[in-house]
Design goal:
Radius of gyration: 24 Å
Strand content: 15-25%
CATH class of the largest domain: Alpha Beta
Distance between the termini: 58 Å
Structural class: alpha/beta
Number of helices: 16
Number of strands: 18
Largest sheet: 5 strands, parallel
Strand order of the largest sheet: 3-2-1-7-18
CATH topology of the largest domain: FAD/NAD(P)-binding domain
Shape: globular
Helix content: 25-40%
CATH superfamily of the largest domain: FAD/NAD(P)-binding domain
CATH architecture of the largest domain: 3-Layer(bba) Sandwich
Number of domains: 2
Length: 469
């Protein structure tokens, strides 16, 4: 498409026009195996990982590589387990564009569909966002390695890390001076079926974050536990693929209806939540957890327009029993019979259970180590969130015990308590991304301060050679 080719050329030209300062400046470091260590390894080639990689290269930090376990074009949730038709965030968001208009989603969309189509667009189609990210990666020629799964991360010393990967060609080892964990909502945790669902026959209990074809639900009665967007997405997908019924089971007495996160999407809150006192951060996140989060209005309306859809409040699942032909759900005196159940209960942050992150969890400070909540605001979930620096880097639980932690920054679940409720989503990228990049750049600069001083003093750096001067 000619217009898209022109946009690609324009994006590259804009990048070149704003390339100051262009001088290379980062000293290389030789790794223990004789290779040159990466200045930064970015783990995850989704929206945040690609933008971090692009931003680092723009700062002339050129020994960078981005790694993702998924095949090219299937990074992140967009064409795997995500099922919404449109993104939940406003279409006007920016962040991946790193300040270049031609790299924005809007420019990409208008190049293919025209300015009028942008005006008519309500929100960004989910699969279009994946297509945009693929174009973005190719336009910037980003150094992404697909099929590389991080399985080990450990320090060599205070300023160098060893990363182990599983690849199609076997185990590989890479050394890096900094690491950005850009693995999104699922990077620091795992899906887990609630205990009440775990004794059902195989295949009868699913999780909303599982990759499965909703066509398997055709003709079935489906019950979904959870009141959030992913629960509604599964119910919609089930009904649109021929399910007989799909019911949302809400444990709360009433359905959550408010979503202050949309109000938070302003320049003040997104940029400076991270500067709030710890007590205010804790109270804010406690409040958000207490009130819950409903699905976006378009999702709510779409679900209620489908025959066979229902929401049942005050219906926690006390017991699930397989009768041999159906699943019987018991909640107090209430009963329901269905063919399949789905947990729309989100992710559980569990860094200690992920081999590559276990060393971080062992030494990193968590919020429970740094903050004691007031009576009534105790929350083990929040207490287990990492207590990050403002550039997203981990901090030591015991000072001096693991100085290498400051070399690792988080763009994963759990970062929201420190950096903002939408820190790891595309809503907050515009403000969180520059801080992460600044942290990497600052560490690299300070690493070589002695060498830079020697270079400063070893040369006169004469600008005018005239004898008359």
């Amino acid at each position: 498409m000619i217009a898209l080719e022109c946009l690609t050329a324009q994006a590259r030209r804009e990048l070149a026009m704003l390339s100051y300062p262009a001088a290379p400046w980062v000293d290389a470091r030789t790794a223990p195996d004789g290779t040159t260590a990466l200045d930064c390894a970015v783990i995850g080639a989704g929206q945040f990982g690609l933008a971090v990689t692009a931003s680092l290269m723009r700062e002339r930090i050129t020994r960078v590589a981005c790694f993702d376990a998924a095949p090219e074009g299937r990074e992140g949730p967009w064409v795997t387990f995500a099922r919404m038709q449109i993104l939940r965030t406003p279409k006007y968001l920016t962040g991946p564009d790193i300040g270049l208009p031609a790299l924005s989603f809007r420019a990409w969309w208008e190049a293919q569909h025209g300015a009028g189509a942008w005006d008519a667009l309500f929100r960004i189609p989910r699969t279009a966002w994946m297509d945009y990210l693929v174009w973005y990666r190719r336009t910037l020629d980003l150094p992404v390695r697909n099929g590389w799964k991080l399985v080990a991360l450990e320090p060599v010393d205070a300023t160098l890390l060893r990363l182990g990967f599983e690849t199609d060609d076997g185990r590989r080892e890479i050394f890096a001076r900094n690491v950005v964990l850009a693995m999104g909502a699922s990077g620091a945790g795992r899906t887990e079926l609630p205990a009440v669902m775990q004794d059902l026959p195989e295949g009868r209990a699913l999780h909303a974050n599982d990759c499965f074809d909703p066509a398997i639900l055709k003709g079935q009665r489906v019950a979904v536990l959870g009141a959030g967007a992913s629960a509604f997405d599964v119910a919609i997908a089930a009904l649109e693929n021929g399910a007989a019924t799909a019911s949302i089971s809400v444990r709360r007495p009433t359905m959550p209806l408010s979503n202050p996160r949309r109000w938070m999407e302003n320049a003040g809150y997104l940029a400076h939540y991270m500067h709030l006192p710890d007590a205010v951060k804790w109270a804010t996140m406690s409040h958000l957890l207490a009130i819950g989060q409903p699905p976006p209005r378009p999702t709510w309306e779409r679900a209620h327009a489908l025959p066979g859809f229902s929401v049942i409040t005050d219906f926690p699942w006390d017991c699930l029993r397989w009768t041999g032909t159906e699943i019987e759900i018991t909640s107090g005196a209430k009963r329901m019979a269905v063919d399949r159940v789905v947990a729309g209960t989100g992710m559980r942050v569990a860094m200690a259970e992920i081999p590559a992150l276990a060393g971080i969890a062992q030494h990193a400070a968590m919020w429970r180590d740094r903050f004691t909540p007031p009576p009534g605001q105790e929350n083990p979930r929040l207490g287990g969130a990492p207590y990050l620096a403002l550039d997203g880097s981990f901090q030591e639980r015991v000072p001096g015990a693991a100085p290498w932690l400051s070399r690792i920054a988080s763009g994963m679940a759990g970062a929201g308590l420190t950096l903002g409720p939408v820190a790891t989503s595309n809503s907050g990228m515009k403000f969180v991304l520059p801080r992460v990049v600044e942290g990497v750049r600052q560490r690299l600069f300070l690493d070589q301060q002695a060498a830079d001083w020697a270079r400063l003093m070893a040369d006169t750096h004469r600008e005018i050679e005239s004898d008359a001067a």
